[in-house]
Design goal:
The two termini are 29 Å apart. The protein is built from seven helices and five strands, in the order βαβαβαβαααβα. Strand 2, helix 2 and strand 3 form a beta-alpha-beta unit. The chain is 42% helix and 9% strand. A five-stranded parallel β-sheet has the order 2-3-1-4-5, with helices on both faces. The longest helix has 18 residues. By secondary structure, the protein is an alpha/beta fold.
């Protein structure tokens, strides 16, 4: 972890640029841990315990189940920074369907109540909106602890480095999975 920096939690839902955020944080020198437990049938029961164990070995985190645990992570790691990645709802939902289709996972069953987005578009969209609103409400009095990024709107180094008080690297901002 860059000297003097807090832990950084990416708390945007999957398919909002979580891999892009992870690559950017890696470029800035953070040891990044991405998703875990998607296929674990007990993920709802063990996610927090496992997340707290994993967090000892890394500096930055993104994708699931990190997003779902943001309040617990904030309580366990005071002074941390949080980044909500978002994208236009219609594009997010299309990406969910294109990438996951009718496939189900225990992780998505826990998050949405149903495991596959295909045929459950309203459920997924409602949960996406609820999560984003919950994050904004939770951090409403702590604007210095939350950064909102939308990579489709060309957010990049300026926003991220300003938020983390990091030097801007001399490389282009990454963009993973640009077609999803």
């Amino acid at each position: 972890m860059p000297l003097g920096k807090q832990k950084v939690f990416g708390i945007g839902f999957h398919k909002t640029g979580t891999k892009t955020l992870g690559q950017a944080l890696t470029t800035l020198g953070y040891r990044v841990k991405g998703p875990f437990g998607a296929q674990d049938p007990d993920i709802a029961k063990v996610a927090l315990r496992r997340a707290l164990e994993i967090a000892r070995s890394y500096d930055a985190f993104n994708d699931n189940p990190w997003a779902i645990l943001f309040k617990d992570l904030d309580a366990n790691f005071p002074g941390s920074k949080f980044i909500l990645t978002r994208r236009a709802e219609d594009r997010w939902l299309r990406s969910q369907i294109r990438y996951f289709g009718a496939k189900s996972t225990p992780m998505r069953e826990w998050i949405y109540g149903v495991g596959s987005p295909l045929g459950n578009e309203d459920v997924y969209l409602r949960r996406y909106r609820q999560h984003n609103a919950a994050v904004l409400s939770y951090f409403c009095r702590r604007p210095d602890d939350l950064l909102i990024m939308d990579f489709e709107r060309k957010d990049g180094w300026a926003q991220l480095c300003g938020f983390l008080r990091a030097n801007r690297p001399c490389v282009p901002f990454p963009h993973a999975n640009p077609t999803l």
